[in-house]
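Exercise 7.
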Amino acid sequence: MTEPVTSPPLALGLAEIQAAREVLRGVSVETPMERSRWLSALCGGPVHLKCENLQRTGSFKARGAYYRMARLTEAERANGVVAASAGNHAQGVALAGQLLGIHATVFMPEGAPIPKERATRGYGADVVFEGRYIEDALVGARRFAEETGAVLIHPFDHADIMAGQGTCGLEVAEQAPEARTVLVPTGGGGLIAGVAIALKALRPDVHLVGVQAEGAAAYPTSLEQGAPVALTSMRTMADGIAVGMPGELTFAAVRDLVDEVVTVSEDSMSRALVALVERTKTIVEPAGAAAVAALLDHPDRWSTPLVAVLSGGNIDPLLLGKVIRHGMAAAGRYHAMRVNIPDVPGGLAGLLLEVSDAGANVLEVVHERTSPTLHVGEVEVLLQLETRGQDHSERLLARLRERGYRVTG
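Solution. The predicted structure, written as tokens, is:
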């Protein structure tokens, strides 16, 4: 991190965020702060979850979008608005347009989650697909704004957007006044910038941590270079935080007010998402699970009491199924192994009986009779198993080897 500067990062402070809160009363939801006994035990102290997945439109984005659009002049409203988003900002802009009577057009990257697209259309916005990434969609949105006079509602890099998102920080300060660490999923930085401005004004001692997906982590390099730096490529399932370059305003706020930025892998987000479903009965999208993923990776790293923001819950059911399977595999709940058995009647039945007696569930069985690694009279069996976790899988492997089976995997 560079040394903090003495001047404020932008003309936005606590007073502006408090003003935004008054505008948002009756529009946005004061989302709950839930104590997690499971994470508290893991981290050795109180851990609370700030449930922005329960916000209107399913993410924190509704806060900033509505506040930004509520402050438009009548002339600006008459020309409509345009936005670029993978889905959460799109829904926030579309809902705000519906509530304020402003026509909205949203550019989305190709491959944006279908539920997010449908929800955006359901709020009355027009949807246009352009490019693979949010930056491509933003180019299209800017072009549309120049051609039509529509006001561009940037997904993160605007003071009003940051002020709206900062109202989440006001709620954190009130709901968890004893918090010593707050972890926030981070893409372009609108949420963590707003939260940082609010929290550091009220609780300057709070340790703020931004959490990015490894495959879309623009902040670490940008902070090292001292200015926003664009990624050359991105690859992550966490579309909610898949932003290839910080904004000028958000970068300044993160540089000056956020204590550290960490990254989490796809496996970590998958495990976190599965754990939230199992342990807290909470559905989040991969981006929404990023803060919890960081806690699972580093349970002893930060001081408690601790708050992890669940930034959004808009996940495609098909992706949810894939992530759950991937998360279970990453947690050792799914296990693939190859076992060599005698090619005799009852050979496979004997193997499956051993697996059953060990308490594992067989999902798939594949025979391989032709392989240079097989001895004469042997068959290789590929087993896909469901186990109770890594320890259980290791006990099963040991059991089979004790019984004389040649096992790999």
